[in-house]
Amino acid sequence: xxxxxxxxxxxxxxxxxxxxxxxxxxxxxxxxxxxxxxxxxxxxxxxxxxxxxxxxxxxxxxxxxxxxxxxxxxxxxxxxxxxxxxxxxxxxxxxxxxxxxxxxxxxxxxxxxxxxxxxxxxxx
Length: 124
Known about the structure:
Blueprint: E1 10-14, E2 27-29, H1 43-48, E3 56-61, E4 69-72, H2 74-78, E5 87-89, E6 93-98, E7 102-107
Parallel strand pairs: 2-3
Antiparallel strand pairs: 1-7, 3-6, 4-5, 4-7
């Protein structure tokens, strides 16, 4: 398994607004503008430029035949395991809604992709 320092990763840490949440938040495409949900994008750099809020949504764009998006627990994220998914997204144009504050963990569930660094940034 790749070391944590060399992994690209995507954990969405959501900060709730002090006075509540907005019904319609912002939409963020993972890896945009230069990348997408792929093996080459730098998710750490991408996520460092985004301040997620409750009500936002994260869009995952990828070739459907080559990848997927699996939401996992923190323990499964740390282990690069998608065997007990919280949610599986597979259309190639998927949206994950961020309704509340907290951390969410996403990996590619295709065998070998998470170990190759295909997971979201851990900002928890």
